[in-house]
Structures are given as structure tokens and as C-alpha cells.
Design a protein that fits this description.
Blueprint: E1 7-12, E2 21-27, E3 30-36, H1 48-52, E4 67-69, E5 90-92, H2 95-113, E6 118-121, H3 128-142, E7 147-148, H4 156-166, E8 183-187, H5 191-194, H6 196-207, E9 211-215, E10 228-230, H7 237-250, H8 256-262, E11 263-264, H9 266-273, H10 278-285, H11 289-301, E12 305-309, H12 311-314, H13 319-333, E13 342-345, H14 352-357, E14 364-365, E15 369-370, H15 374-384, H16 396-404, E16 410-414, H17 418-421, H18 425-434, E17 437-442, E18 454-457, E19 466-469, E20 474-478, H19 491-501, H20 511-520, H21 530-536, E21 538-540, E22 566-567, E23 586-591, H22 607-612, E24 617-620, H23 622-627, E25 635-640, E26 643-651, E27 659-663, E28 676-679, E29 686-687, E30 691-697
Parallel strand pairs: 6-7, 6-16, 8-9, 8-12, 9-10, 11-22, 12-13, 16-17, 17-18, 23-27, 24-26
Antiparallel strand pairs: 1-2, 2-3, 4-5, 4-18, 14-15, 19-20, 20-21, 23-30, 25-26, 25-30, 28-29
Helix pairs in contact: 2-19, 3-19, 3-20, 4-13, 7-10, 7-11, 7-13, 10-11, 16-18
The chain binds iron/sulfur cluster.
The site of iron/sulfur cluster has 14 residues, from helix 1 and helix 6.
Protein name: Formate dehydrogenase subunit alpha
Family: In the C-terminal section; belongs to the prokaryotic molybdopterin-containing oxidoreductase family.
GO molecular function, one term: formate dehydrogenase (NAD+) activity
Length: 698
């Protein structure tokens, strides 16, 4: 019963972009229970992570004191940190010494080599205020746009296509609108695993008799509820999607009036998809022509159709092209800008939308204003009182390459774990070890923090006040439940402490001051004051007035592009960067598990979640396991041209023949040791979803 708790705090879940609202119960200074609240996104529901994944906050492994690398502890990419004693590599330090050392190292590099020698990774797990401050520090203090975060590894290609096509990277409708749609396409996403509460709306819509079309190379639970389940060949998204567009054009199922009023590029699209008939593409994508025609007709003819997509679309070297096809589908049918219609890239992290909105990306100031636009840059130069870098900065993987080339020599990393999350992990770890100065701010001694010169113990989500923006564009408030352990401090205060030491005159008294400054520069947050978010708990942007609810649907009256029209960019079918061959005959694809979050830093320290999925696995179809002469439960080696990783083999009928799937959360079986760092040319996202591999018994 609630009465037996010391307190119950209203907050939001720290894991995925669904942004479920929570009630966190505390007893004897410990979180003892988390329940769902009746929020717009979750209506009292939580998934296993939100409900049982909280005890990482109280883990004895939390960092409680600042650490400085020992003079005799060499940096090495090969360090095996599992089970190692941190005090053999680091010594404890006072805050004064650690902050002086952290900022001093960055300042020395700045003076010796200029801002281009520095870079920062912020975090999609931090608050909007932290994201804003972090990008401001890099831009104003370091004098460079070399600032990025894990959006580069998830929806960067989707955002590139959306910015180009509809002038905004945000979703056009909330996922709740699945209940208002007549036809729902879910493509390249596995919501029952990665966005479980959002998936409940899709299942409910299917139960209500709506058409649910699930398109994914891996079989998945949502397909049991689907009217159409298309297990297509991996890497052939453009073939499949252009075939759908071909049918819509050939059978004149497009919305001519809508196109004339709102869309450019239709003629070029018609031309491009001429050769993509379902009959020609059936063999390429592995879906028969009749099914492709039926799906195209169902989507186009429905009164209201909506598309959801995930990393299966975005994490390819042709990820931007994949998203361009989805945008074209919506634009030619007029399935956008009305309730129950639209484009919704399902956001991964709890604040990847907000961190991107706040400018934690190398090409944009807050609200996606180009750093290369002189007028915009002038506004920020006036506002921050500093000349700013006129060129876009480097992205996550480009920063790693620039370290190898000796261009970047120092980094500040807050709450990100590139030693686990970047593709071609050995290359990434070598880069971290090569840095002259690395400051890591985190709650655990992550795989990345082991490479640091200075480690700053920070606050978890449960210890901080701040705003977070979920996949629906809801700005929500997260409230502190506990005090940070030991000497750990608030992240925003640490960013300010570093800023002051490198000579910036920052005077924030409270995190709400940061929000107010940020919102003053962001039209998207107009009419959404800190006081309003505190009072209402959640406000969807954009909002037309302080006393009116935000707009769930955008693009109701054209698009925020230069001419107000949506722009179609036709896409070509390109192969993945590395395809199977005799030496490496399988396709390796990576992703997440229901129980573990990203690199596992949090959920592997959560007792219930760790107990359900305790060790590193690779999964294959039982048929493929037999073909390879292996047995479920074997320890196998998965090999690619980048490396070899051991994992326990699990049989999974969802995985297609010729494929091996690995989650990237296990540091004993690090999937990203194997992945291909080749980038999509527009979104600069690596091809996590496809590379050539082989499996061997150990
Ligand atoms: Fe948390 Fe996402 Fe699960 Fe909701 S669906 S409880 S936000 S992990």
C-alpha cells in the first residue's frame, strides 16, 4: 500500500522514447517500487524495463568519487575491464583537483591546437537542459561544432530525410494515433521489444479491426496481430518500398489534389519507380507481387494510414533513401497532417528527440537551425557573446576517425559509451586510448570511462530534475527521487563547472534558468514555460498558447520548408556496403533485447533484468544452426572482417535463414566488435543492420 512508502514521486521512465510516466516509491532512501501513471503515452502501463529496471540506481558499482588516471597506468585499447579493480588504474581525487584537471587538459589542447582538436559527445539519456548546456559548452567554449550523440547511431538518416522532405525531424503524429488510423505500417521496427507500451496501441488497433502491416526481415511478435506480415530480404527496403509506390502510381491511387497543393518532385518519382514493378521486385525483396500490390492498395485506399519505423530502416548505408521512400509514400497519398495519418520514426532513447532538438548535433543549433547559416549563427553569436565556428562539425564515427588521423586530441564525453556502441569497436577503443585528454562524466565506470584521464561521478535519472522529450514530442518533467550517492553531482552543475574553468561566464542558479534560456531560442517551445511543464507534467509541442494543449498533429497546412511544400527525393536501389561471400556467407544483424537497454550499462546492473538475460548470446534459426553443424547452447565464434566474438548460441525461429542476430548490450560478447563502420552519406549513420559474417564452433 502507498502508505507504507516514505514518499511516492511522479516522474518518467529513463529507458525508451515512449516516455511512460511513472510513480516511483521510496522507502529508507531506496527505490522499492515503480508503477505506471495515467500519462498520455502510457495510460498506466509500463514494460518490464520501466517496472523492474530501477535498481541500477542503487548499484554498489555507482561512481561516488572523482577519479584521476594514475601516472603509471598506460592507456590501451585492449584493457579488459571486467572484474578489474578500478583503483589499479585510477586514484580518487577531490572535486577541485578533478575539475581543474578535467578543464585544464581541455584548455591546454585548445590553446595549443585550437577548437578543432576537441570534440564532445553528450547524451540522449540526459535532460534537455543538459543537452543544451553541453552543446553550448562545445560551441561557445571549445569553439567547434564537433558535438554529437547517439542519434547518429539510430535515427540520423531518418532525420536527414525528414528535414529534406518535410522540413522537420519530429514525428508528424503521436503513436497513440494508431488507434485513429485505418491502416498502420510498422517497418524495420520491433516495438514489442523496443517500444513495448507503444506496441500495445498497435495491437489494440489490430484488435479493433484495423489493418496492421508489419514489414521486417526478422519475424516478430507483432506479426501475430498483423493483417499482412512481410518477412522481406534484408537490405532490400528500397526495392520493396519503390514497388509499393509503383503500384500506387500505376493504379492511380495517389491523391492528385493533395500533390498539386502540397508536394514537389512527383514527376521525378514517377520516372524513378517505372522499373520497380512488384513483378520485377518480388525476387529482389522476397515478397510475391500479389502481396506487394495488396499492401500498396491497402495503404493508399485507406482513409487514414500511418507509418512507424525504426532502426531496421535507418541503420543502413542507404538509411536516408529508405526513409525518403516512406516520406514519398505518405506525400503522394496525402496520408499526413490529419489525425490517424503521418510519419513516425519511433525514437529509441528517452530523450533522443529532446537532445537533438536542443542542438546536440554537429550541423544544427537548437531547433535544427543550420550552423552554416550566417544569419542564424549571428543570432547565437550575439546571444552567447562569442564568435562561433561557421562550419558543421564532425559526427560520431567521423570523430573517431579524426582521432586516428591525429586531428582530434581531446574529448569530453557525458553519459555515452562509444567503446560499446560504436561500430568496429576495436577501432573506436583504439581512438579513445589515443586521446591526449579524455574526460568522462557518467554514473558507472563504463567501458568508455576506463579510457579516461578524469572520471566525474554524475547523477542518474532518478536523482535529477529536468525535462525530457519523448517520441511523441511530449516535453515531460523528470523529478528527483533520491540524492546522488557519495560525492556524485548533478550533470548540469558539472558542465557549468567545466565551462567556468575554461573561462565562460555562466551564471545559472537553477536548472529552470537553463530551460528558460533554451526555450527563448527555440520556437518549438513557445508557450511551453518551465512552470507549465512542472504544473502539467507533460506538454506536447508545438503549442499555440500557454493555456491551450499542444498540437498532436503537425503539417496540417503544408510543411515548414522554404516553399511550404513537401519534397520527394526518389531513391535508387543500392546494395549494402558489405554483402555475404564465400568466406563470410551469413548476414550479421544487431539490435536490442526486451530486457536490456543499449550498451547494458544500466540494465545489466538491474537485478530482475539481468536474471532474465544474463549472458551474451547470438541467435539463429534452428534450420541454419543445423546447416552450420552447430547445436543450441554451444559457445560459438561469430566472425567478420573486423573481429571475432564469442557468444552462446540460441535458437530463434524469428531469425531468417542465412542470418545471425546479436544484441549489442553484452560486453563479454560485444557485437560492435564485428559491425561495419561504413556510413550512410547523408545521415552519417553506420550500417549496424547488415554485414557479412561466419559462425564457427569454439
Ligand atoms: Fe520505459 Fe519504454 Fe518500457 Fe515505457 S515502454 S516503461 S518508456 S522502457
Amino acid at each position: 500500500a502507498v502508505q507504507s512508502f516514505d514518499k511516492v514521486v511522479a516522474s518518467v521512465c529513463p529507458f525508451c522514447g515512449v516516455g511512460c510516466q511513472t510513480e516511483v516509491a521510496v522507502k529508507d532512501n531506496k527505490i522499492v517500487q515503480v508503477d505506471g501513471r495515467n500519462g498520455y503515452a502510457n495510460e498506466n502501463r509500463l514494460c518490464v524495463k520501466g517496472r523492474f529496471g530501477y535498481d541500477y540506481v542503487m548499484s554498489p558499482e555507482r561512481l561516488t568519487k572523482p577519479l584521476i588516471r594514475r601516472d603509471d597506468a598506460p592507456k590501451s585499447a585492449d584493457i579488459d575491464m571486467r572484474g578489474a579493480d578500478p583503483l589499479t588504474v585510477f586514484r580518487e581525487a577531490t572535486w577541485e583537483e578533478a575539475l581543474d584537471r578535467a578543464a585544464g587538459g581541455l584548455t591546454s589542447l585548445l590553446k595549443a591546437h585550437g577548437g578543432k582538436a576537441l570534440a564532445g559527445f553528450g547524451s540522449a539519456k540526459g535532460s534537455n537542459e543538459e543537452a543544451y548546456l553541453f552543446q553550448k559548452l562545445v560551441r561557445q567554449g571549445f569553439g567547434t561544432n564537433n558535438v554529437d550523440h547517439c542519434t547518429r547511431l539510430c535515427h540520423a538518416s531518418s532525420v536527414a530525410a525528414l528535414m529534406e522532405g518535410v522540413g522537420s525531424g519530429a514525428v508528424s503524429a503521436p503513436f497513440n494515433d494508431a488507434l485513429k488510423a485505418d491502416c498502420i505500417i510498422v517497418i524495420g521496427a520491433r516495438p514489442t521489444t523496443n517500444h513495448p507500451v507503444a506496441a500495445t496501441y498497435f495491437k489494440q488497433a489490430a484488435k479493433n479491426g484495423k489493418k496492421l502491416i508489419v514489414i521486417d526481415p526478422r519475424r516478430q511478435d507483432l506479426m501475430r496481430h498483423a493483417s499482412h506480415a512481410l518477412e522481406f530480404k534484408p537490405g532490400t527496403d528500397v526495392a520493396l518500398l519503390n514497388a509499393l509506390i509503383h503500384v500506387i502510381i500505376e493504379e492511380k491511387l495517389y491523391d492528385e489534389q493533395y500533390i498539386q497543393a502540397n508536394v514537389s518532385g512527383f514527376e521525378a518519382l514517377k520516372d524513378k519507380v517505372k522499373d520497380f514493378s512488384p513483378e520485377a521486385m518480388a525476387e529482389v525483396c522476397g515478397i510475391d507481387a500479389a502481396t506487394l500490390r495488396d499492401v500498396a492498395r491497402t495503404y493508399a485506399k485507406s482513409e487514414r494510414s500511418i507509418i512507424f519505423w525504426g532502426m531496421g530502416i535507418s541503420q543502413h548505408t542507404h538509411g536516408t533513401d529508405n526513409s525518403r521512400c516512406l516520406i514519398a509514400l505518405a506525400l503522394i497519398t496525402g496520408h499526413v497532417g490529419r489525425p490517424g495519418t503521418g510519419l513516425h520514426p519511433l525514437r529509441g532513447q528517452n530523450n533522443v528527440q529532446g537532445a537533438s532538438d536542443a542542438g546536440l548535433i554537429p550541423m544544427y543549433f537548437p531547433d535544427y537551425k543550420s550552423v552554416e547559416n550566417a544569419d542564424i549563427r549571428g543570432q547565437y553569436e550575439n546571444f552567447w557573446g562569442q564568435t562561433l565556428d561557421p562550419k558543421r562539425g564532425l559526427t560520431v564515427v567521423e570523430i573517431v576517425d579524426a582521432i586516428h588521423e591525429g586531428e582530434i586530441k581531446g574529448m569530453y564525453i557525458m553519459g555515452e559509451n562509444p567503446a560499446m556502441s560504436d561500430p568496429d569497436q576495436s577501432h573506436a577503443r583504439q581512438a579513445l586510448a589515443m586521446l591526449d585528454h579524455l574526460v568522462v562524466q557518467d554514473i558507472f565506470l563504463t567501458e568508455t570511462a576506463w579510457h579516461a584521464d578524469v572520471v566525474l561521478p554524475a547523477s542518474s535519472h532518478a536523482e535529477k530534475l529536468g525535462t525530457y522529450t519523448n517520441t511523441n514530442r511530449q516535453v515531460q518533467i523528470g523529478r528527483p527521487v533520491l540524492d546522488p550517492p557519495g560525492e556524485a553531482r548533478q550533470d548540469w552543475e558539472l558542465i557549468v563547472a567545466i565551462a567556468k574553468r575554461i573561462g565562460l561566464d555562466w551564471k545559472y542558479q537553477h536548472v529552470s534558468d537553463v530551460y528558460a534560456e533554451m526555450a527563448s531560442m527555440m520556437p518549438s517551445l513557445r508557450n511551453i514555460s518551465w512552470e507549465r511543464v512542472e504544473r502539467e507534467g507533460s506538454v506536447i509541442y508545438p503549442a499555440d498558447a500557454e493555456d491551450k494543449p499542444g498540437n498532436e498533429i503537425i503539417f496540417t497546412d503544408g510543411f515548414p520548408t522554404a516553399d511550404g511544400r513537401g519534397r520527394i527525393t526518389p531513391a535508387d536501389l543500392l546494395p549494402p556496403a558489405e554483402v555475404p561471400d564465400e568466406q563470410y556467407p551469413l548476414i550479421l544483424t544487431t539490435g536490442r533485447l526486451l530486457e536490456h537497454w543499449h550498451t547494458g550499462a544500466m540494465t545489466r546492473r538491474a537485478g530482475v533484468l539481468h536474471a532474465i538475460e544474463p549472458y551474451g548470446i547470438a541467435t539463429m534459426n534452428p534450420r541454419e544452426i543445423a546447416r552450420q553443424g552447430l547445436t543450441q547452447g554451444d559457445v560459438i565464434e561469430v566472425q567478420t572482417r573486423r573481429g571475432t566474438v564469442e557468444a552462446i548460441l540460441r535458437a530463434d525461429r524469428d531469425v531468417a535463414d542465412g542470418m545471425v542476430f546479436m544484441p549489442f548490450c553484452f560486453n563479454e560478447s560485444p557485437a560492435n566488435e564485428l559491425t561495419n563502420p561504413m556510413l550512410d552519406p547523408f545521415g552519417k549513420i553506420p550500417e549496424f543492420k547488415y554485414c557479412a559474417a561466419r559462425v564457427l564452433p569454439t
